[in-house]
Specification:
- The protein has a single domain (about 1-220), classed as Rossmann fold (3-Layer(aba) Sandwich).
- The protein has helices spanning about 40-55, 65, 75-90, 105-115, 165-175, 200-220, and strands spanning about 1-5, 15-20, 25-30, 60, 95-100, 120-125, 150-155, 175-180.
- The longest helix is centred in the last third of the chain and has 20 residues, at about 200-220.
- By secondary structure, the chain is α/β, with parallel strands linked by helices.
- Helix 3 (about 75-90) crosses helix 4 (about 105-115).
Length: about 220
């Protein structure tokens, strides 16, 4: 079932969508959207549905700028406040919480743990944006090294914002990191048409990776 929630934040309420499996696992997942599209984007809906099918209660939400219909993301401190509020809300439904996110949403999730101290049991990054859009110099990801819980980096092998060598280096530098590339995937994990694969195939693969990682690294 999909439940609509109003999530209270220090900056005002935002909308959340909680997908609850019939036989849920004790771990819930907050799935945060990227900079350019909110929780209703087809990628977010497809991933939320897959995570629910695996048994994870999954909460998506809109950052405040998306809630208010603005295009430009808020500054990082505001993103962290809203993200933390969403994570705390999911904690009222589950035993523990993993933070996952697409691009910017994953990056902010790392700060929610490293800077705001949220007690996530793991983090999952779908297309971690090591290189910001339009930039060539990698951004600082040193804060990830302060995170002790398992971190999973899932990136497309042809992602310009997450070049495999840089993402793998980030995963290697953290205490408990795993790098899992999606062959031929772009920033949204979408493959080239010439491969005969579809976005759905890539999302299925990403969820298989996440599930196996959760069983081996988190649920033990």
């Amino acid at each position: 079932m999909l439940h609509t929630l109003k999530i209270k934040t220090p900056l005002g309420p935002v909308t959340g969508k909680l997908a609850r499996p019939q036989s849920p696992r004790g771990t819930g997942i907050v799935l945060a959207h990227g900079a350019g599209a909110g929780q209703t984007h087809s990628w977010m809906v497809a991933m939320r549905d897959r995570l629910k099918a695996l048994g994870f209660p999954t909460l998506t939400f809109d950052y405040l700028y998306t809630e208010e219909g603005r295009k430009a993301p808020d500054r990082l401190p505001k993103l962290i406040e809203v993200h933390t509020a969403a994570a705390n809300r999911l904690m009222t439904y589950t035993d523990d919480v993993m933070l996952a996110g697409k691009s910017m949403g994953g990056r902010v999730g790392g700060h929610v743990v490293a800077d705001a101290g949220f007690p996530a049991v793991g983090l999952v990054y779908f297309g971690y944006p090591v290189v910001a859009m339009g930039k060539t110099i990698p951004r600082d990801v040193d804060h990830l090294e302060s995170i002790a819980v398992p971190q999973l980096f899932i990136s497309g092998s042809r992602d310009p914002m997450g070049p495999p060598d840089l993402v793998e280096a980030a995963a290697t530098a953290v205490p408990n990191g795993t790098f899992s590339p999606i062959d031929g995937g772009d920033h949204s994990l979408a493959p080239l048409k010439s491969t005969g694969r579809t976005v759905d195939d890539s999302l299925d693969e990403a969820c298989e990776i996440l599930d196996a990682w959760w069983l081996s690294e988190v649920d033990r």
